[in-house]
Write a structure and sequence with these properties.
The complex is a heterotrimer of chains A (307), B (291) and C (489).
Chain A (H helix, E strand, L loop, with lengths): L1 H4 L1 H15 L6 H27 L6 H19 L3 H25 L2 H21 L1 H4 L5 E2 L8 H24 L1 H11 L1 H6 L4 H27 L1 E2 L1 H4 L2 H14 L5 H16 L6 H16 L4 H11 L1
Chain B lengths: L1 H30 L6 H18 L3 H30 L8 H23 L14 E4 L2 E4 H23 L1 H11 L1 H6 L4 H26 L7 H15 L4 H21 L7 H13 L9
Antiparallel strand pairs in B: 1-2
Helix pairs in contact in B: 1-5, 1-6, 1-8, 1-9, 1-10, 2-3, 2-4, 2-8, 2-9, 3-4, 3-8, 5-6, 5-8, 6-8, 9-10, 9-11
Chain C lengths: L4 E12 L2 E12 L2 E6 L6 H9 L6 E6 L2 E2 L5 H6 L2 E4 L11 H9 L11 H13 L15 H13 L5 E5 L7 H16 L3 E5 L3 H7 L2 E6 L2 E6 L1 H6 L1 H8 L18 E12 L2 E12 L3 E5 L6 H8 L6 E6 L2 E2 L5 H6 L2 E4 L11 H8 L5 H14 L1 H5 L10 H13 L5 E5 L7 H17 L3 E6 L2 H4 L5 E6 L2 E6 L1 H11 L2
Parallel strand pairs in C: 3-8, 3-9, 6-7, 7-8, 13-18, 13-19, 16-17, 17-18
Antiparallel strand pairs in C: 1-2, 1-4, 4-5, 9-10, 11-12, 11-14, 14-15, 19-20
Classes of the chains: A mainly alpha (307), B mainly alpha (291), C alpha/beta (489).
């Protein structure tokens, strides 16, 4: 396959190797930042699949993430089920949520669909708060099981998860199905005229995006050992995911992962500035939108083409 | 008693909501922009107003005025720094402009929120009431300020109505919201009309911000919530319809107030959320929308 | 020659809201034949195609493919049954190469297939080469010239060996040489035994290519037969050019030496890659009434949009002494060049009076009142309906409102684009009288674009013919009647 020989593959492979070796020379603090960033990367890639490929703007990705996360957390803490089972259950719950979102998406355009996704998050948020006895409400809940206590092991789990998801999602985006998805998202009428059932493909895209979002959300819970609205449901998290994907370059999948890592690391890096770090990150993201709308990776990739 | 209290409080809150929503819908109708920095503009007006009135010692009236002007300035900044460059950018394809403007205003709103909190404070601020005293309405003791707010909100909306329906510029704005090419062919410069529209919007949002500060208090953390409620009201009423926004503002305002009084204050936003979901599924164009 | 009946359309009807787009349309399409569908703007041709392809759903009637009723099927199912369409505007996937775009057309509609079979790549290459894209397989659509984009659309449409091929405006934007090449490609399709239905504004090109021609007007079939038969048909000629072209003697007052008011030199307009106007030279003198006649798609609207500053162009456009390029569209309008467009662009939710007032917005109150009185005198119906919302007016009334609103701006040069479009003959008479009054009562220069030659000629001092973006003829009306009666269509 041409891809295996392409420049992108070798750069990505090199990056992964370096990343895998990081625990040997980097502080535990930085490792934990990167671990969170890797899960965030999966969130962003799943978002990019939906937006870049199916053309649907999801303003509330945390709806799917939160569903996966809380389902896994509740099952683990109330029923004591083992981690893998909980993660799978979380993924399934998220897929159900994805189908729920897909239904209005097919009938509504632009801002209206975006609004539905926002409302979904708000409803989930309120739901969690109301049923505080089970979910821990605004304070959040803890889960008895965690992936590991060792920071390096957690890091490797996260990295492996990111690489697997990236490979799967990227592979999907470059596959025949990915091509059909792109066509469905870019020009639904033409896709239909070419014989593709656009509805079927869009619902599938929602399910795939939900699957990855929910699984990543559940995994994140078992890394952190806690689940709360602030970490997996809040709209602010969703905003960051969108920024990460747009920063990295829409429709590149891998760009979203890079964007996410960049964003999280930048946030930490700027922490000494106190509250201003959010300001700086937002300003950088705004600058990217204004001057490099293709995103950082998108710009790098396409610069070759335009010449 | 309860009923009257709900009626009165609901009216005041709804009037404020309507001011903010009308501005939001105006900008959408004329400029086609869903401004996610809306709450941020209101917050700036409130904070600057508080600063001017209190710390800078200008007194309540002058302070309020300064606050409104700050809102106006922020609205223009939003247009000139974020919205216009994105719309004019040749690197962005026309179909994608909408999402870029949305993300751009979102980021700008975050910058405003955090910037304000850093520069001043993220605690809630209040502006002293413009008039003091308590009035009794049907046996319910209500701050006179609350009445004033409702009256002021309606006065502003009335002025806006006059502007749009009785002045040449106002009618041109209305025309632009229906048919931008049409007004261009009649010799009106769209760029100038947009500047006027954003100016009106800035004043509306600014007034809403300072009034909210004198009624309930405003903090930078409210910015997102304020944008969200303006957004929901406008969608409920119908994107682009001013009268729809007015009606929806009252529906939402009363729903929230009734919920807070009769069920629980924490569940305040829920009924309007549910209503929003219903509307989006059943009648996406809102009560009175025509787009 | 032609074989079995592939497609049977029976009593097809479609309305969009209150507008009837197609009514009682019936025809057959046989294998191995090319049928051309012609008709002026708004006649329903493209709607018929959308209905066959399943993109729009008919209100009533049947569409049978090899005997099976496909009306009501979703588009993708119809596509998989052997019908394909080439849309008017090319719709490539910009981020994919030409080869990948064609491959897409060959893919099965499956959720699970991740890899494409090797044979798919081979077939895609074959198909691309057949339409002449062999040399650009690995390029991206935005690097290709316009004609190649159209080839790619054709390649996608024939990829899965369709029985029926629908082609919407194949020749729009192509040069005469490219039209020849495309016509040959389409002939090949027919010779392979497919049933081809095509729609185009260029009557000449359709007629040269089609085995059978069907003419439509206002949603209905008005003539069917061989190309010659249809072109000679009375109704068809009346619908296209308004009737018999008669010589009209114009008594213009000393037109020859009046100063030039509007001048166009070598004006060219591109829509993306397609050339819409090709080196147009034009001149209008003060107080002249000049007509530009031509069929739909000839470029009349593009020409007017360029003059009004609504589209970018190459070349020079001068109004009096000023070069219009340096001005914004709104300032061009304020400067006296008033454009009343084909689409009218009324403020539909505002009243008639409000529309007119906005037109007079730059005048003082008293001037505006006087102008309004004059417009009401010209069009009494507008005065009657002044409080009504513009969208409640009939087509003819809306046209009068558009014209009245343009007149409120006190134009020095009035540019009127296809005022008769979609109007009943009675209204045409009223409009004609109004234009005559304009000539007599005010010092006004008029540039009129019309497909309806019979309407335009009596009001013209000079005539230009625009065909495929080029001025192909100019002269006075008498000469036009003599020379163009037969050759125009």
């Amino acid at each position: 396959m041409a891809f295996l020989r392409s420049r992108l593959f070798w750069i990505a492979a090199a990056v992964v190797v370096v990343a895998a070796l990081l625990p040997f020379w980097v502080s535990i603090y930085l490792l934990s930042v990167l671990t969170a960033a890797y899960y965030f990367g999966v969130f962003a890639m799943a978002w990019d699949l939906l937006f870049g490929f199916a053309g649907e703007v999801n303003f509330g990705p945390t709806f799917l993430i939160g569903l996966g996360a809380y389902t896994a957390a509740i099952l683990n803490s109330t029923a004591g089920l083992p981690i893998p089972v909980c993660v799978v259950a979380g993924a399934l719950a998220a897929v159900a949520g994805g189908i729920l979102l897909a239904v209005p998406a097919l009938r509504l355009r632009g801002p209206y669909f975006g609004l539905v996704t926002l409302v979904a998050v708000l409803l989930l948020q309120n739901f969690v708060v109301i049923f505080a006895s089970v979910t821990g409400g605004e304070i959040g809940m803890t889960v008895p099981d965690v992936l590991s206590i060792d920071a390096s092991v957690n890091y490797w789990y996260a990295l492996a998860f990111l690489v697997v998801c990236a490979a799967l999602l990227f592979g999907l985006s470059r596959s025949a199905v990915g091509l059909i998805l792109q066509a469905s998202g870019q020009d639904a009428v033409e896709a239909a005229a070419l014989g593709f059932n656009v509805t079927k493909h869009k619902v599938a895209a929602f399910c795939v995006s939900a699957l990855f979002s929910g699984t990543a959300g559940a995994m994140l819970i078992f890394y952190m050992g806690t689940a709360s609205v602030d970490t997996v449901v809040d709209i602010a998290i969703g905003v960051q995911i969108i920024i990460a994907a747009v920063l990295g370059g829409r429709r590149t999948i891998l760009g979203a992962a890079f964007g996410a890592v960049f964003l999280i690391v930048a946030n930490e890096f700027l922490r000494p500035l106190g509250q201003l770090n959010t300001f700086v990150v937002a300003a950088i993201a705004l600058a990217v939108i204004l001057f490099f709308p293709e995103g950082l990776l998108g710009y790098a990739l396409h610069r070759g083409e335009r010449e | 008693m309860r009923a009257i209290q709900i009626l009165v409080d609901g009216f005041a809150i709804s009037s404020l909501y309507s001011l903010a929503a009308v501005g939001f819908t105006l900008i959408f109708g004329v400029s086609g922009v869903l401004n996610l920095a809306h709450g941020g503009i209101m917050v700036v007006a409130a904070l600057v107003g508080w600063l001017a009135a209190g710390e800078l010692g200008l007194g309540t009236y002058a302070g309020t005025l300064v606050g409104v002007l700050a809102g106006l300035a922020t609205a223009y900044a939003t247009y000139l720094v974020v919205v216009r460059p994105i719309k004019r950018s040749r690197a962005i394809r026309p179909e994608e402009t909408e999402i870029f403007v949305l993300t751009g205003t979102l980021l700008w709103g975050i910058m405003i929120q955090v910037g304000m909190a850093y520069l001043f404070t993220d605690n809630p601020v209040t502006i002293r009431p413009l008039i003091s005293g308590v009035v009794s309405i049907f046996g319910v003791r209500t701050p006179a300020n609350e009445i004033l707010i409702a009256v002021l909100a309606w006065a502003v909306i009335g002025l806006l109505w006059l502007l749009v329906n009785r002045t040449r510029t106002g009618k041109a704005l209305l025309g632009a919201s229906m048919n931008p090419r049409g007004v261009t062919l009649l010799g009106y410069e769209l760029t100038q009309l947009y500047l006027v529209a954003w100016g009106i919007y800035g004043v509306l949002a600014g007034i809403a911000g300072v009034l909210l500060a004198s009624f309930l208090g405003v903090s930078t953390t409210n910015a997102g919530q304020l944008t969200a409620s303006a957004f929901s009201i406008v969608v409920l009423g119908g994107l682009g319809s001013v009268s729809g926004s007015l009606i929806a503002a009252y529906v939402v305002g009363y729903l929230e107030t009734a919920t807070a009084y009769l069920i629980a204050p924490t569940l305040r936003p829920i009924p309007s959320l549910i209503l929003l979901v219903l509307v989006v599924y059943v009648r996406p164009q809102g009560f009175l929308g025509r787009r | 020659m032609s074989g079995a009946v592939r497609l049977q359309v029976g009593e097809l009807a479609k309305r969009f809201g209150g507008v009837v787009a197609v009514k009682n349309m019936s025809f057959d399409l046989k294998a191995g034949e090319i049928v051309g569908l012609i008709g002026p703007n708004g006649s329903g041709k493209s709607t018929v195609m959308s209905l066959i392809m399943g993109i729009a759903r008919a209100n009533s009637g049947t569409i049978k493919l090899d005997g099976v009723d496909i009306s009501g099927w979703p588009a993708h199912r119809i596509a998989r049954s052997g019908v394909s369409i080439v849309f008017q505007h090319s719709r490539p996937l910009q981020r994919q190469t030409v080869l990948e775009n064609v491959k897409l057309a060959l893919l099965p509609d499956s959720l699970l297939r991740l890899a494409t079979e090797a044979s798919v790549g081979e077939r895609a290459r074959e198909i691309a080469e057949r339409v002449g894209l062999g040399g650009v397989l690995h390029r991206h659509p935005w690097t290709l010239p316009f004609a190649d984009l159209r080839r790619m659309e054709l390649a996608k449409a024939v990829a899965r060996d369709p029985k029926v091929v629908l082609i919407d405006e194949p020749f729009a934007g192509l040069t005469p040489t490219e039209i020849k090449v495309f016509s040959d490609l389409i002939r090949t399709l027919r010779d392979e035994g497919r049933a081809v239905l095509l729609v185009d504004h260029s009557v000449k090109s359709v007629v040269a290519l089609a085995d059978r021609v069907i003419a439509m007007y206002l949603g209905e079939r008005i003539a069917e037969g061989s190309a010659d038969e249809v072109m000679q048909n009375e109704t068809v000629r009346r619908v296209y050019i308004g009737g018999k072209i008669e010589a009209v003697e114009r008594k213009s007052a000393g037109a020859g030496q009046a100063p030039t008011l509007l001048q166009l030199d070598a004006v060219e307009v591109f829509y993306g890659k397609a050339k819409a106007l090709d080196r147009v030279d034009l001149r209008v003198r003060q107080d002249e009434f000049v007509s530009i006649v031509g069929l739909n798609g000839a470029g009349k609207t593009t020409l007017f949009n360029a003059i009004s500053g609504l589209v970018p162009y190459r070349g020079a456009i001068r109004f009096g002494e000023r070069d219009l390029r340096s001005q914004t569209a709104a300032s061009i309008a304020r400067g006296g060049v008033v454009h009343c467009p084909e689409t009218r662009e009324l403020f539909v939710h505002m009243s008639v009076r409000e529309n007119l007032d906005l037109g007079g917005g730059h005048l003082s109150k008293s001037e505006r009142q006087r102008q309004l009185d004059w417009v009401f005198d010209l069009f009494p119906i507008l005065e009657q309906r002044q409080a009504q919302a513009a969208r409640t007016l009939s087509g003819g009334e809306q046209q009068m409102l558009a014209l009245g609103r343009a007149l409120m701006m006190q134009p020095k040069l009035l540019i009127l684009d296809e005022p008769t479009l979609g109007l009943a003959p009675v209204i045409l008479g009223q409009l004609s009288k109004a234009i005559e009054r304009l000539r007599q009562e005010r010092s006004l220069t008029l540039l009129l674009a019309e497909q309806n030659v019979t309407f335009a000629l009596p009001h013209s001092d000079r005539v230009y013919v625009l065909d495929h973006g080029r001025i192909t003829w100019q002269g006075d009306p008498v000469r036009f009647a003599e020379e163009m009666s037969t050759g125009y269509l």
